[in-house]
Design brief:
- The complex is a heterotrimer of chains A (437), B (160) and C (693).
- In chain A, the strands form three sheets. A five-stranded mixed sheet of chain A has the order 6-5-11-8-9, with no helix packed on it. Chain A has a four-stranded parallel sheet with strand order 3-2-1-4, with helices on both faces. A two-stranded antiparallel sheet of chain A has the order 7-10.
- Chain A has 17 helices and eleven strands.
- Chain A is α/β, with parallel strands linked by helices.
- Chain C has four domains: 90 residues, Roll (Ubiquitin-like (UB roll)); 161 residues, 2-Layer Sandwich (Alpha-Beta Plaits); 235 residues, Rossmann fold; 129 residues, Dimethylsulfoxide Reductase, domain 2 (3-Layer(aba) Sandwich), CATH 3.40.228.10.
- In chain C, strand 16, helix 8 and strand 17 form a beta-alpha-beta unit.
- The longest helix of chain C is centred in the middle third of the chain and has 18 residues.
- Classes of the chains: A alpha/beta (437), B alpha+beta (160), C alpha/beta (693).
- At the A-B interface, strand 3, strand 5, strand 11 and helix 13 of A face helix 2, helix 4, helix 5, helix 6 and strand 3 of B.
- Bound molecules: flavin mononucleotide (FMN), iron/sulfur cluster and FE2/S2 (inorganic) cluster.
- The site of iron/sulfur cluster has 14 residues of chain C, from helix 4.
């Protein structure tokens, strides 16, 4: 089902079947080039598949943006251990709701992507780790998996070749941290979602202590198009160092929020004003989050001339992340934004390492108090300080994810913090106590 | 402990999904699916799952208390989970939350006296582009307004 | 040898084996990198982030505890950035710490306190409300104060990895994370207290020690635990002649920091109110208090009488008195009382093993060997409950060196968890079941075999023959009970054997024969309770008992002499692996005397002092070194708290082992013969465990 109207500005590669009748069924899939890439990949050597993916300039769509072809090449294919494919469908980064529509509308594309990765890594089983809240996607995927078995795309001797592969769904149960790849693997093994010490990386020691390809849903979903139409064609859709399209989750104060597939390098201005139909009520842009709540927040000025791609974002000291875009208008209270973001990280910190566990909790408490008008001038410096003390020092990147937006907000909107000082209620709204989860 | 045949079938399938000796991997799915049927993660359920996947009860406790969707206490029949994370916050999620609390007279993780409805303020549920959003059990409701919320709650109160 | 890697730490050029972690490389070269969660020998965590260091070319600080050295690596551990990072970690930690140091048991020994003192957290910037939870009692010995916990996970790891118990876990997440016991609100475990000792702060405290004293008010005496045969070193904390604490935090001795419940807590028998503190002499049919001189006079007079009458003596020694006492006692019996009627309760067949191994060197395993051998076979023994330290060594070996463990037992045992092969056999059939492992064991480069009291006589010979037939180096551990069972056999507390396994000219009576003898003139019992489940046939025999408590045996004695416990005397003991270690006196109990001194005083009273020689433990030990094969161990080694292994015989032993007399009492973690009955703490733990079942 589509929850928003598509935009004519979209370049629909991964979402090409969205909106077709019974788009999730294998019949629709087969009628629209489905499993063609698999047939092609079955004829290719693993190195050739990896080469094609490298050519495509596909970068991981889970947030870190690591080269997918490189990652696949790290798997020791000759290891005597079994190798696994793991799909990260935890989609728990706030502002992100793209993997959900990819699975809901086109589950076979994901399965085909897994099969291609399996051929590249000599894997024979794969797990799709789905966040617990997405229960209905498990049903959709289980149905698709059953169809694929029936049609000989899964199971023993796929399409009469010697290649066999089994796919399973696996549910999480409410934990952002389980989106982090090593915590996900722990969770998959029936444990608390505590990240692992790395190295070794999952490519070498992953699921069940075996070599594992672990990617985001969208990353796998790009594989069929890359193999089918060639890596070069995919690369050409994007910018020089980042190929293809990106499903962008446009949210916040825009007229037409929604999930849109836009080529990498798409103009931010065009995205807000044309794809998103401009800011609600004709208000002005105040702040912009390019890729999920873990990214440093940009001011309106910083958005000028900005494009949606990894390197352009890095130049502005932020990240493309997961593609979760937040548009905030001029009436937004940035203290509240900082507080809400920190509240999330404090709730989701796994508790393993000192700086993240204590830092997020301390910052949350301070920001609540501050937003409630009981802040002290020293708190402003303290907030930035504590966040910097976490930055780069935590066990996994969750600490950075909490620190980065916080640092950017206190630094860029210091004036708003000043305005909250000394018992005055939030100048932007009627303040009431937040319920703490 | 006895479960419905459907759930038993799910358990069977799960326990066969993982490599030999790795049955512990089935723990989280088993707990979540069983909770859906039993209503909460009871002591008995902990022991049962521990037995089936071959771990100590403590290891199940460690897991339960880690995952926010696993509950020791029973929730309402209709568990209303309102997201107030950033995208929902900007589009009225917090107002929805306050509205629901006021209307039902209960707060975070509380259940109405008739056991019908429970409320939880949740973190991002993956509906950001169609915010503000909420989930009733596993069903998504998008672009919810206070009016739509009223209708929904009224309907839930009547539903058996 | 592993390849060496060159690196620089704080401008010092170092060479360390490849694979070494930076934190270890630094430590071995005298550079300390602070840490809470890093703990040598336990799994890596990288959780506390105290060990962050600067590494050239790395974009951010690196954790030294999980970073292996690399060629040419340049590390700096004291730069302003590093110091600032450390300080910030402490600031984070203290934000939710109660700072109740003045009343905390750990005060003065707290790693958090030390760290803050060193690296300073400055003025507190935390003004929010702290997470609070009330203190909980998890068992008679374990208390948990959640707010003090810094979540270093040492306790969880020592319990799981070290003890193989897994009674501790982590529940909740984020700032609400906390350590939790395996049974919801209480613990069901070995109650070893390892978690308490390893806790860097005062989060886990001990039921026996809490709020009793401050660490600096105690004197610390390192001695050997008196409960089982494993011979762990325990450091007793003493204040005002009272033992307040037992632990081994300095990791000295064979056991490193390991101690079981008995070594750590069961010292409390020493000041039990029932402790005998004055000699008792039977007058008018009742045991009445008497002075030492009166009592010794009665003993000497009666011994002389019996001797002159040509009456029979019976002497029953102990398996927890010292080597010196045992040696001196048998000398007294044989040279003053002129009898070979001397025995003790035998708990394992050491004799047959030594005979079967004659001509071989290095055939007895040390406790260290258990940690290093490539393969270990456990036959008919419940190590975790009866030989906790040996069990600990095997687990550590498995963890650190992936040793192959084989368990052949009738019941599930803890070794199963680490076992390569588990063989279950009917009780009594374990020995024959060992055969099924032949091919596997043959492929091992070496092996240690531990066996329980069910294997004796021919069984031992068969086991040794099996071991020999494997064609690989095999070492053995004959499992015995009590702190000096080995010493009792080695020192000749046997009717058929003199010290060092020399056959005695004429075999004397075994203790069973003594009790059954109708014409026994005198029975002298030292540190044993033979009449607990038996009767003395010779009702009129004159009976002397040296004991700490009024045992069943003492109750019918004519003279009871109050004996000092192992914690109140010096001397040496020999553990299950034949390692000799020295006791050090920690306290004194008014009125009680060490058995050695008592025997000496009796000798003096009988004008036989010249025959038996001076009764100082040093002089007797010198005599042992000269006369008992295998015991000429370097004095300096044991005087400094070390252990020296003995192989007390190396030739055939001319007598057959009396296998009918061998019986282990199978004391477990919570029992310890007479001593256990008088330990309030052991009893309270036992009671709690019964209540839960
Ligand atoms: C705290 C945290 C949460 C994350 N959550 C997700 C997630 O929900 N989904 C996801 O695909 N990747 C998530 N990631 C990124 C993964 O660790 C990993 O980089 C990614 O799944 C790799 O796939 P890719 O290369 O295809 O992007 C998260 C990372 C961190 C540090
Ligand atoms: S209780 Fe002590 S040892 Fe255990 S995690 Fe807490 S501080 Fe560490
Ligand atoms: S010692 Fe390295 S993180 Fe704790």
């Amino acid at each position: 089902m589509l929850y928003n109207e598509p935009s004519p500005l979209e370049v629909r590669v991964l979402s090409r079947r969205f909106g077709l009748p019974n788009s999730a069924s294998i019949d629709t899939y087969l009628a629209t080039d489905g499993y063609k890439a698999l047939r092609k990949a079955l004829e290719m050597k693993p190195e050739e598949i990896i080469e094609e993916v490298k050519t495509s300039n596909l970068r991981g769509r889970g947030g870190a943006g690591f080269s997918t072809g490189m990652k696949w090449s790290f798997v020791p294919r000759t290891s005597p251990k079994p190798k696994y494919i793991v799909v990260n469908a935890d989609e728990s980064e706030p502002v992100t709701c793209k993997d959900r529509v990819l699975i809901e509308n086109d589950p076979h594309q994901l399965i085909e992507g897994m099969l291609i990765a399996a051929l590249a890594a000599d894997a024979h089983a794969g797990y799709i780790y789905i966040r617990g809240e997405y229960r209905y996607l498990i049903d959709i995927l289980d149905t698709a998996i059953a169809e694929a078995y029936q049609h000989g795309y899964l199971g023993k001797n796929i399409l009469g070749t010697s290649f066999s592969f089994d796919a399973y769904t696996h549910t999480g149960a409410g934990a952002y941290e389980c989106g982090e790849e090593s915590a996900l693997l722990e969770s998959l093994e029936g444990k608390r979602g505590i990240p692992r010490i790395r190295p070794p990386f999952p490519a070498v020691v992953g699921a069940f202590q075996c070599p594992t390809v672990l990617n985001n849903v969208e990353t796998y979903c790009a594989a069929p198009a890359i193999i089918r139409d060639g890596g070069a064609a995919f690369a050409a859709l994007g910018v020089p160092k980042a190929g293809g399209t990106k499903l962008t989750c446009l949210t916040g104060h825009v007229n037409k929020p929604g999930v849109y597939e836009l080529p990498l390098g798409f103009s931010v201005d065009k995205m807000i004003n044309e794809v998103g139909g401009g800011i609600r009520g004709g208000k002005k842009l105040k702040a912009f989050i390019p890729g999920g709540s873990s990214c440093p927040v940009l001011t309106a000025a910083e958005c000028e001339g900005l494009t949606m791609d990894y390197d352009a974002m890095a130049k502005r000291k932020t990240m493309l992340g997961s593609g979760g875009v937040v548009i905030m208008d001029e009436d937004t209270c940035m203290v509240k934004v900082a507080l809400r973001i920190m509240r999330f990280y404090a709730h989701e910190s796994c508790g393993w390492c000192i700086p993240c566990r204590e830092g997020t909790s301390w910052l949350r408490k301070t920001l609540v108090r501050f937003h409630d008008g009981m802040g002290q001038r020293d708190d402003i410096g303290l907030i930035g300080d504590l966040a910097k003390n976490m930055l780069g020092r935590t066990f996994c990147p969750l600490g950075d994810a909490a620190a980065l937006p916080t640092i950017s907000i206190v630094e860029k909107w210091a004036a708003e913090f000043e305005a909250h000082l000394n018992g005055r209620p939030c100048p932007y709204e009627n303040v009431s106590q937040l319920v703490m989860a | 402990m006895t479960f419905s045949p459907e759930l038993e079938a799910k358990f069977d399938k799960l326990l066969k999904s993982y490599p030999p000796g790795r049955q512990r991997a089935a723990m989280v799915p088993m707990l979540l699916f069983a909770q859906d049927e039993v209503g909460s993660v009871t002591r008995e359920l902990v022991d049962e799952v521990a037995k089936r996947v071959g771990v100590q009860a403590l290891q199940v406790d460690e897991v339960i208390t880690y995952y926010s969707m696993l509950h020791r206490k029973p929730l309402g029949k209709h568990h209303v989970q309102i997201c107030t994370n950033i995208s929902c916050l900007l589009t009225g999620g917090e107002e929805l939350w306050k509205h629901a609390c006021a209307k039902l007279g209960i707060g975070h993780k509380e259940v109405t006296p008739d056991g019908r409805i429970s409320l939880e303020e949740v973190e991002c549920i993956g509906a950001c582009s169609w915010a503000p959003a909420l989930q009733v059990n596993y069903d998504f409701h998008h672009q919810v307004t206070p009016e739509k919320l009223d209708q929904l709650l009224d309907r839930l109160r009547k539903l058996t | 040898m592993a390849d060496l890697v060159k690196l620089t730490i704080n401008d010092r050029h170092l060479e360390v084996p490849a694979g070494t972690l930076v934190i270890e490389a630094a430590k071995r070269n005298g550079i300390e990198i602070p840490s809470f969660c890093y703990y040598e020998g336990l799994a890596l965590q990288a959780a506390c982030r105290m060990c962050l260091v600067e590494v050239e070319k790395a974009p951010k600080l690196m954790v030294a505890c999980t970073l292996p050295v690399a060629e040419g690596m340049v590390v700096r551990t004291e730069t302003p950035t590093v110091q600032q990072a450390r300080k910030s970690m402490l600031e984070f930690l203290l934000s939710n710490h109660p700072l109740d140091c003045p009343v905390c048991d750990k005060g003065g020994e707290c790693e958090l306190q030390d760290m803050v003192f060193r690296y300073g957290a400055g003025e507190s910037r935390f003004t929010e409300q702290k997470v609070h939870e009330d203190e909980k009692q998890w068992s008679p010995v374990v208390f948990f104060d959640m707010p003090r916990c810094i979540l270093c996970f040492r306790c969880v790891r020592i319990c799981g990895e070290g003890m193989g118990v897994n009674a501790l876990g982590v529940v909740n997440r984020g700032v609400l994370s906390e350590i939790a016991p395996n049974k919801g609100d209480h613990l069901e475990c070995d109650e070893c207290g390892m978690c308490i000792d390893i806790c860097p702060v005062g989060a886990l405290t001990s039921g026996t020690y809490r709020y009793k004293t401050r660490p600096w008010e105690m004197e610390h005496v390192g001695t050997i635990c008196t409960h089982c045969s494993n011979g762990c070193k325990t450091t007793l904390g003493v204040r005002n002649d009272k033992i307040i604490r037992g632990n081994n935090r300095d990791r000295s001795g064979i056991n490193g920091e390991f101690l079981c419940i008995k070594g750590r807590y069961a010292f409390d028998f020493s000041d039990h109110p029932d402790r005998l503190q004055t000699p008792l002499v039977r007058t008018g049919g009742k045991l009445q208090p008497a002075s030492w001189s009166q009592a010794l006079e009665v003993v000497a007079k009666n011994f002389q009488d019996v001797k002159q009458r040509g009456g029979r003596f019976g002497v029953i020694g102990s398996n927890h008195t010292t080597n010196e006492e045992n040696y001196y006692l048998q000398k007294f019996a044989r040279q003053v009382l002129m009898t070979n009627n001397i025995d003790h309760h035998r708990t394992g067949d050491v004799l047959t093993l030594l005979d079967a191994l004659s001509g071989r060197n290095e055939a007895l395993a040390t406790t260290q060997d258990l940690y290093q051998s490539k393969a270990i076979l456990v036959v008919a023994a419940e190590l975790a409950l009866e030989h906790p330290f040996l069990s600990f060594q095997i687990r550590a070996n498995y963890r650190h060196h992936q040793a192959h463990v084989y368990a052949v037992t009738s019941q599930p045992v803890r070794e199963d968890k680490t076992a390569t092969v588990i063989v279950r056999a009917a009780p009594g059939a374990e020995l024959s079941a060992v055969e099924s492992l032949r091919e596997k064991l043959k492929a091992e480069p070496e092996l240690i075999i531990l066996y329980g009291d069910a294997i004796k006589g021919d069984g031992v010979r068969k086991l040794v023959a099996f071991g020999t037939s494997l064609g690989i180096p095999v070492k053995y551990v004959p499992l015995v009970d009590y702190s000096n069972s080995r010493g009792a056999v080695d020192m000749g507390l046997m009717p058929e054997l003199l010290p060092g396994y020399q056959p005695s000219q004429a075999f004397g009576l075994t203790w069973a024969d003594m009790l059954a003898s109708e014409d026994l003139g005198a029975l002298w019992v030292i540190g044993a309770n033979p009449l607990k489940n038996a009767e003395l046939r010779a009702r009129n025999a004159f009976m002397v008992v040296q004991e700490m408590f009024l045992t069943d045996t003492a109750q019918i004695a004519d003279v009871v002499l109050p004996a000092a416990s192992a914690y109140e005397k010096s001397g040496t003991v020999t553990n299950v692996c034949g390692e000799v270690q020295r006791l050090k006196r920690a306290i004194q109990t008014m009125g009680a005397k060490p058995d050695l001194e008592i025997i000496g005083l009796i000798a003096k009273e009988m004008d036989a002092a010249a025959v038996v020689g001076p009764w100082t433990s040093d002089s007797v030990f010198e005599e042992i070194r000269k006369n008992v094969r295998g015991y000429d161990v370097p004095v300096a080694m044991i005087a400094t708290g070390g252990a020296a292994q003995t192989m007390p015989v190396n030739g055939r032993i001319a007598v057959e082992s009396r296998t009918d007399l061998i019986r282990s009492t199978h004391d477990n973690l919570f029992t310890s013969g007479t001593l256990g009955r008088y330990s309030k703490m052991l009893n309270s733990v036992l009671e709690r465990r019964l209540n839960y079942h």
